[in-house]
């Protein structure tokens, strides 16, 4: 549905997006993740036809965004970082205007505007001026605007920014509902949002794609080795660390935390090898108390930090 | 076409939702009225002198002494009011980010530019509509020829359209509407005074300078003369300015 090939965008000497390629399947929700200034907004602006790339191409809903921009734009809904509202227009007038320029047929315009206002929960401010709305309402009017012409492709730049927690949950729910019928790219730097709403994640840093995968795969793939946390209650005279180290498959043991006789160890083992049974057996056969044994997973936050800070030069 | 109208409609609504439309129409109505009264008093005086036969003019003509100078004076009003109309057209969209909506909608750049131009033109037409009242008085109490009045309105409309298209272009170059307004005013002024040097210049330069002046081309219209030379000038001027605006919007995209 969306195909991005070797996209590069330079502003003078700075390269905002550097050779980015990815594809999004029909009905998929793709998360676009990266620190501020990573090139998320630039990529989205290129995909929506707001600006052309320096190199590479993008195919949206079957149309090259530069060869046939009008056809591609007809099938794309876009919510920019700041919702593009006219402050002097009422919400209803604004949405009617957008429906007009997006090519919604005249007879279905009023109905469509009403439907979207219900769906994005802005019907209660229909006659208020856009300039007088709170940030949460603005964001939702922006979302309504992007959905008006029922586009196949939705591109949402930080759709939950500025919303309160209840609105965030509602918006995420709405996005989830929209996935399936619509192909969605959404950018965010809120990580739980990605694991909750997206089927796939593209992590971008300094204009380059550093990873493309499902949220689950990303968290597990990045653990080069498996790490267990083992909490043992043993007499201080016994060398627990040494005992754990000689368990087959274990590569490294480090004491993490101690409280009296209770000591926690982080046990690394070879990737793909589950050593939990052996660890438990060793601890129990030595007569120690096994208080806790659990795998340590890298959270998406850690994955993200790992990927986006790895190659940063230390200054 | 429906896209152009949608944009034009939105622009018009924008003008009337803000004080701009009222300021522009009110201000121009007051100024026009002022010019009108002055010219009328002057005309009245001349008519009396002509009637009394104290070596005054042989005969007086409403078209020549009131209507024609009145139309020529409109350029002064436009100089001050039209920058107010065009300064926000693109600048404000750029500043507030609504340009992203327009440029990512299934519209061509030309449709957007034409829509904005048309919106401004309708507001300007509303501004001119007020002056029909003044001219109406002349028809009610006098007996002017109507052809020069019509051609005068056409000329004034075309001249305003030139200013509007130029202002639109300037607005497309900056995101600051005050800057756009000031530059537009300066550029209008240049086109207004460009032929002041014509009297001192060599014949070739005289022709060039006179040709460049937006207001110079209005003269014939106000006398009831429809010369294709002037029509071509105005239409070319408008088309070229709108073309430049489309190019400016497009180049802005490339630069980001």
Describe what you observe in this structure.
The complex is a heterodimer of chains A (315) and B (256). Helix content of chain A is 34%, strand content 30%. Chain A has 315 residues and is an alpha/beta fold. In chain A, α3 (91-101) crosses α4 and α4 (106-119) crosses α5. The radius of gyration of chain A is 25 Å and the shape is elongated. Residues 311-315 of chain A have low confidence and may be disordered. Chain B has 256 residues and is an all-alpha fold. Chain B has one domain. Chain B has eleven helices and no strands. Chain B has helices at 2-17, 20-52, 62-86, 91-96, 99-103, 109-141, 147-171, 177-193, 203-212, 218-222, 228-255. In chain B, α2 runs parallel beside α6, α3 runs antiparallel to α6 and α6 (109-141) runs antiparallel to α11 (228-255). The model of chain B has no long low-confidence stretch (mean pLDDT 89). The interface between A and B is medium-sized, with 33 and 27 residues.
What separation lies between the terminal Cα atoms of chain B? 28 Å
Spell out the CATH superfamily of the largest domain in chain A.
P-loop containing nucleotide triphosphate hydrolases
What is the ordering of alpha helices and beta strands of chain B? Answer: HHHHHHHHHHH
Tell me the β content of chain B: under 5%
What characteristic shape of chain B results from the CA principal axes? globular
Biggest interface between protein chains, with counts per chain? A-B, 33 and 27 residues
How many whole angstroms does the radius of gyration of chain A measure? Answer: 25 Å
Number of domains of chain B: 1
**Unreliable residue stretches of chain B:** none
The helix content of chain B is over 70%
- Termini distance of chain A? 42 Å
- What portion of residues of chain A is helical? 25-40%
- Strand arrangement across the biggest beta sheet of chain A: 6-7-8-3-9-10
Assembly classification: heterodimer
Number of strands of chain B: 0
CATH top level of the largest domain in chain A is Alpha Beta
| Alpha plus pi helix count of chain A | 11
> Structural class from helices and strands of chain B?
mainly alpha
Structural class of chain A: alpha/beta
Query: How many domains make up the coordinates of chain A?
Result: 2
- Sequence of secondary-structure elements of chain A: EEEHEEHEHHHEHEHEEHEHEEHEH
């Amino acid at each position: 549905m969306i195909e991005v090939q070797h996209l590069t965008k330079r502003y003078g000497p700075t390269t905002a997006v550097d050779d980015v390629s990815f594809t999004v399947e029909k009905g998929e929700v793709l998360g676009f993740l990266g620190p501020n200034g990573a090139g998320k907004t630039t990529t989205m602006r290129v995909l929506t036809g707001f600006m052309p790339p320096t190199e590479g191409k993008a195919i949206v809903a079957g149309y090259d965004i530069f060869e046939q921009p009008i056809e591609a734009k007809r099938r794309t809904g876009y919510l920019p970082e700041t919702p593009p509202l006219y402050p002097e227009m009422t919400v209803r007038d604004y949405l009617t205007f957008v429906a007009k320029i997006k090519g919604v047929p005249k007879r279905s315009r009023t109905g469509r505007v009403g439907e979207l206002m219900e769906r994005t929960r802005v019907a209660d401010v229909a006659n208020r001026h856009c300039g007088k709305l709170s940030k949460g309402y603005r964001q939702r009017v922006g979302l309504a605007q992007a959905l008006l012409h029922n586009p196949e492709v939705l591109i949402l730049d930080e759709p939950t920014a500025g919303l309160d927690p209840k609105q965030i949950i509602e918006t995420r729910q709405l996005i989830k509902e929209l996935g399936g019928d619509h192909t969605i790219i959404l950018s965010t730097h809120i990580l739980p949002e990605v694991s909750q709403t997206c089927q796939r994640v593209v992590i971008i840093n300094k204009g380059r794609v550093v990873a493309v995968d499902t949220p689950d795969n990303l968290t597990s793939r990045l653990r080069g080795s498996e790490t267990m946390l083992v909490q043992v209650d043993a007499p201080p005279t016994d060398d627990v660390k040494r005992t754990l180290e000689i368990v087959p498959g274990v590569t490294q043991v480090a004491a993490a935390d101690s409280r009296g006789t209770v000591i926690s160890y982080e046990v690394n083992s070879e990737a793909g090898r589950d050593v939990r049974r052996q660890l438990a057996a060793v601890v129990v056969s030595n007569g120690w108390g096994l208080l806790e044994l659990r795998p340590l997973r890298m959270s998406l936050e850690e994955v993200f930090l790992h990927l986006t800070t790895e190659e940063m030069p230390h200054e | 076409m429906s896209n152009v109208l949608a944009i034009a409609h939105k622009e018009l609504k924008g003008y009337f939702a803000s004080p701009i439309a009222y300021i522009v129409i009110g201000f121009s109505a007051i100024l026009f009225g002022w010019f009108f009264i002055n010219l009328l008093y002057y005309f009245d005086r001349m008519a009396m002198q002509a009637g009394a036969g104290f070596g005054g003019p042989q005969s007086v003509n409403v078209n020549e002494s009131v209507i024609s100078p009145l139309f020529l004076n409109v350029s002064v009003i436009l100089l001050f009011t039209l920058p107010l109309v065009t300064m926000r057209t693109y600048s404000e969209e750029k500043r507030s980010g609504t340009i992203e909506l327009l440029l990512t909608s299934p519209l061509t750049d030309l449709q957007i530019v034409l829509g904005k131009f048309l919106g401004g033109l309708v507001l300007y037409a509303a501004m001119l509509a007020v002056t029909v009242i003044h001219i109406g008085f002349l028809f009610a109490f006098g007996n002017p020829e109507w052809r020069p009045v019509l051609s005068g309105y056409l000329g004034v409309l075309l001249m305003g359209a030139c200013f509007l298209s130029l202002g639109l272009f300037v607005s497309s170059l900056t995101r600051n509407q005050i800057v756009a307004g000031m530059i537009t005013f300066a550029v209008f002024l240049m086109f207004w005074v460009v032929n002041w040097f014509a009297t001192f210049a060599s014949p070739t330069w005289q022709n060039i300078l006179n040709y460049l002046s937006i207001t110079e081309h209005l003269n014939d219209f106000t006398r009831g003369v429809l010369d294709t030379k002037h029509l071509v000038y105005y239409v070319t001027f408008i088309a070229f300015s709108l073309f430049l605006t489309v190019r400016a919007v497009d180049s802005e995209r490339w630069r980001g």
